[in-house]
Design a protein that fits this description.
By secondary structure, the chain is α/β, with parallel strands linked by helices. It has helices spanning 11-22, 39-48, 62-71, 87-92, 94-114, 149-167, 201-209, 237-251, 270-281, 305-311, 319-332; strands at 2-6, 27-31, 53-56, 75-80, 119-125, 172-178, 180-182, 216-219, 231-232, 234-236, 257-262, 268-269, 287-290, 299-300. It contains 11 helices and 14 strands. The longest helix has 21 residues, at 94-114. The chain binds nicotinamide-adenine-dinucleotide and uridine-5'-diphosphate-4-deoxy-4-fluoro-alpha-D-galactose. Residues 85, 87, 125-127, 151, 180, 199-201, 204, 216-219, 230, 232, 270, 293, 296 line the site of uridine-5'-diphosphate-4-deoxy-4-fluoro-alpha-D-galactose (UFG).
Length: 339
């Protein structure tokens, strides 16, 4: 039996494929390389010794998706990572985000249904909670108002998958709400490869520490947090990858729609990250405090108890590991996968 991994050459998908192969699973990847590169397949093979079957295709292309299911009759489930994820870009190009993220998911589910594959693990985000009423955030917290089209696609897809289960309870839907995935595989062979100037804190910090960028801009120090800077729940991407394996094992046992927070439960501020990075690498991370970034919230971290109770999963890696592994990846691949 094999698992279809959509977006499997991307940041989180590639790490998950490595963990799945390590657990003896067989993966079939589909990706259109709109935000990843073919060399990722070589790196997965270098780490695992296995080259997963790969299809270059757009999930919105129903005929191509049909072909994948026809050629792989042993597919039994799907982990669905494929999607566009840049918050700012989604505000500038809403139609692109709704088109890509929604149509791809609808097409995927239609083809899965046709081939009687009714098990799906979906990449959602803590963004569905909006600005939380309190932290830590349990899964029962109300889903807040999203502030951008990207977040809205996550809300809508959660609803679509829930309705799919309500209409046909043979489906098993596992919705994983990621907090802030960071770090890289300890080998330094795969990691996050943002194009252009990174939007997210960790890749920016690693580029400052290695001298690629002069200083970090800290977006605001007047939030209602211990040091005034934004607090987030950073989760090592290998821990996150492991959560997918656990979610899949659970989905094989129950037919249900279930949501799980995937975070460590600990919040760190921007300045905590700067200090942790300096301590882990011995290099300095110069920074300047600037204006708040539009749309940012003060604090967001998970109550991850449900994932521990039901999936038997909890994060293992420390913040120091996240910093060291992110730095190892950046140092070994100064230009990402283009080196
Ligand atoms: P990524 O961009 O590295 O990976 C996504 C992959 O999907 C890319 O390889 C891209 O080429 C592919 N893709 C996009 N649209 C496609 C389509 N129509 N057909 C085929 N392939 C397509 O992103 P990631 O960080 O690995 O994120 C994976 C998933 O997790 C996304 O759905 C993202 O929204 C979600 N998520 C990410 C974060 C984060 O901070 N990285 C946080 C919460 C949720
Ligand atoms: N930050 C800086 N300087 C930077 C980048 C970020 O100070 O150059 C700060 C932000 O203000 C925030 C924290 O670092 O306080 C984390 O910012 P990120 O951009 O790394 O992450 P966000 O929490 O803003 O966004 C992430 C994902 C989104 C998702 C959102 C909510 O990137 O996709 O979490 O779940 F929508």
């Amino acid at each position: 039996m094999s698992i279809l991994i959509t977006g499997g050459t991307g940041f989180i998908g590639s790490h998950t494929v490595v963990e799945l192969i390590g657990a003896g699973e067989t993966c079939v990847i589909v990706d259109n390389f709109c935000n990843s590169k073919p060399v990722v397949l070589d790196r997965i093979e270098a780490i695992t010794g296995v080259r997963p079957r790969f299809y270059e295709a757009d999930l919105c292309d129903e005929a191509a998706m049909e072909r994948i299911f026809e050629e792989n009759p042993d597919l039994e489930s799907c982990i669905h990572f494929a999607g566009l994820k840049a918050v700012g870009e989604s505000v500038a190009k809403p139609l692109l985000y709704y088109q890509n993220n929604l149509i791809s998911t609808l097409t995927l589910c239609r083809v899965m249904q046709k081939h009687d594959v009714k098990r799906i693990v979906f990449s959602s985000s803590a963004t569905v909670y909006g600005d939380p009423i309190s932290v830590p955030i349990p899964e029962t917290a109300p889903r807040g108002l999203t502030t951008n089209p990207y977040g809205e696609t996550k809300q809508m897809i959660e609803r679509i998958l829930t309705d799919l289960y309500r209409a046909d309870t043979e489906w098993s839907v596992s919705i994983l709400r990621y907090f802030n995935p960071v770090g890289a595989h300890p080998s330094g062979l795969i990691g996050e490869d943002p194009c252009g100037i990174p939007n997210n804190l960790f890749p920016y910090v690693t580029q400052v520490a290695t001298g690629k960028r002069a200083f970090l801009q800290v977006f605001g120090d007047d939030y209602d947090t211990p040091d005034g800077t934004g607090v987030r729940d950073y989760i090592h991407v290998v821990d996150l990858a492991q959560a997918h394996l656990k979610a899949l094992q659970r989905a094989r046992k129950v037919t249900a729609v279930e949501c799980f927070n995937v975070g460590t439960g600990t919040g760190y501020s921007v300045l905590d990250i700067v200090k942790a990075f300096e301590a882990a690498t011995g290099r300095s991370v110069p920074y300047r405090i600037v204006e708040r970034r539009a749309g940012d919230i003060a604090a967001c971290y998970a109550d991850p108890q449900k994932a521990e109770n039901i999936l038997g999963w909890r994060a293992q890696y420390s913040l120091d590991d996240m910093c060291r592994h992110a730095d190892n990846w950046q140092t070994k691949n100064p230009n990402g996968y283009d080196t």
